[in-house]
Amino acid sequence: MNRGAHGLSAVVVGGTGSLGRHICAALLRAGASQVTAVARHQGQVAPGVRLFRADVLAGSDRALDHLTAHSDIVVNAAGAGWRGTPEQMVRAHTVLVERLLRLVPPHTRLVHLGSVHEYGAISPRDAADEHHPERPSTPYGRTKLTGTRAVLASAAEGRADAVVLRITNVCGPDAPAASFLGSLIEQLRRLPPGRPLDLTVTPDMRDFIDIRDVADAVVRAATAPVAGLVINVGRGEVHAVPAVAEMLTVAAGFPRRRVRMQVAAMPGSPGGNGAWTKVDVRRARALLGWSHTVCLQDSLRDQWTAAAPPDGGRPGARTH
């Protein structure tokens, strides 16, 4: 267990979100004296975590100013998902970051969560290290990159003690519902008994990482001497999306015959092949002493289990 946060106070912006909740819990396990989840709306937090309702974008908020100024660690886990509009992405990924950089004093460690989509296309069989060209092709990737560059510029100028963790595709319990795996789980949960699911997936090769491993990386980055750097956080290996979809359906207890899968590349894919997303994680190992610990099969099983309805029912898994 990482004990680097022992006795420190931490604030997690977006602390009621899927990643934020796990980060809050990991900070508590690492010995943080106080963990505060900042969120605009009421939401679930881990036992022992304080919820502070505030809108970071709302302008001057003395209570929020005081909170960030007197904390040892601030984690930015806020963001707009894939279902957000371009305007929402700009506000969440650039405007909010600029506001945080004004709020967080230079003596407070800021851990900013970036995205592998900031790299854009990665050549097949390549593993993008932190010097890989950044050519994002989506509004999500472009706005995330703008936020990352603002954090790095502030660190270079001595205005922030900040590090950026560039995260790959997240899976595991409470992983974002807007993701491919989250959407597949929703479809399986709603599937009437006995009815097959016709599923079209891309042939993409992606680097998946468990949400709990991400939280562990955040805790380690909160105290490591890594200011001003980007650090990749991923498994460092790729899995085909169709294979991962099949792993999930098996973990959910669905016979293979009930999920009729068709593989089709997205329009514009080179040669009709899917995208390749793999990162080099040697910097995380060297500077954070971090590597993933949760195997993909366990991660998918736990993601399915965590998405169960409150009554524990699994109507879609019945075979008759």
From TrEMBL:
Region (Disordered): 124-146
InterPro entries for the chain: Epimerase_deHydtase, Lipid_A_modif_metabolic_enz, NAD(P)-bd_dom_sf
Domain NAD-dependent epimerase/dehydratase: 11-234
Biased composition (Basic and acidic residues): 126-135
Protein name stated in the entry: NAD-dependent epimerase/dehydratase
Organism of origin: Streptomyces violaceus (Streptomyces venezuelae)
Source lineage: Bacteria, Bacillati, Actinomycetota, Actinomycetes, Kitasatosporales
